[in-house]
Structures are given as C-alpha cells and as structure tokens.
User: Fold this.
Amino acid sequence: PRSTPLYSSAASDVYKRQVKGCLTNIFCLIIIGVIIWIHFLILSGEDLSDVDFGEDIKSPPRDILFRANEVINSGRPFECSERALNQYLGASILGKEINSIAKYIRFERVAVRLRDGEFDLILIRRINEKRLTFSARFQIVSNMKGIEISVKSGKFGNLHVPGGFVSLLYPSVLSVTELLEKEKEMLTRPISVTIKKDWLRLAQRNK
Assistant:
C-alpha cells in the first residue's frame, strides 16, 4: 500500500510562505535596528574630553600668526600647544549657519586635536542645546616638495566612517578654510610642519 504524505501540497505552500514572511520581517527589523543605531551614534556627540580647548585661559589670545611669522623669519622654529591653537581658533572663527537651518542648528566652534603626525579638525554645533560633532582626521607630511595633507578617516558623532565619506563634510571644511585665508598662506611658505601629541611645530624647511 502507498504511504499517505504527512502534509498536503497546499499545507506545504502555506508553511513556506509563513517561513518566508517570518524571515522577511526579521530582516526588516534588523535593517530598522541598524538605521536606529546609526542615527543614535551620529546624534551622540563625540567624546571631546581629550581636547584642550583652552577655555580656562582668561586672557585674550595672542596673534599666533604674527608670532609664527616673526619667529620663523628669525630662523627659529615656532611651537604652539593644542590649547593655544584652540583658543586662537575659538576667537578667530565665528561661524553662522545658513538662514534656513539657523533656527534649529547653532554653530558653536571649530577645534583641533593634535596627535603624532596627524590632527583632527572638529566642527561643533548645537541642536536644542544638544552637542553635534563632525570631525575629519588628516595626516600631514612635510617633504622637499612641500606639505602634503591627506584625509584618513572621519566621524559623524560617534560613527566612524572611511576617508571617502568625509567628502560630506567638505562644504563645512571649505567654509572654515575660507575664514583662515592668511593662515593658509603660511602653509605655502617653504616651511616644515611637525605634529606631536598636543603640539604643533613650524620651522624653515631645509633646502
């Protein structure tokens, strides 16, 4: 005698559809969870406790650019701490958002984090008093041809991204560099740049 199948063909199709629907729902939940997590990382400001803003310095910042030119022209190297540099940037760059978003987002300041051979350029904004940060890590190399600066990586809040994604920050970075026109001219001089943790050193480049 022939054996009777445990499930009919119709029941089997229903089961397959249920399994497929269940897997689709799980996949959608995973995607939604990833999107929520990414937004959480972006909106949670980067930890800046290791950045010396120099906010405890009550005296007005000196003209670092003038001092750098004066020292380098005398043949001596010029050294600047992260604290002094951030104090100078905080007083020199007073940014403002475009009118369409100015009521929601407030530009706070620009800061740098100096590390061995590289630095982070950090843009800090406020959304309803909540800090929002974007940063790009640059590697800087001085050689006989001049100064070479390349992008290594970036961070949107606490979300780490490859260097290619930093292109999304270019409009903001370009706005900052436009405000630092005189400082950019300094880098066109025949000087070498050395970055160490918390320190920047400028010197005449050996010919």
User: Anything to note?
Assistant: Helices lie at 9-43, 64-73, 82-92, 99-102, 170-179, 181-187. The beta strands are 78-81, 105-115, 118-127, 130-143, 146-156, 159-162, 191-196, 199-204. The longest strand covers residues 130-143. Residues 18 and 24 are 10 Å apart (CA to CA).
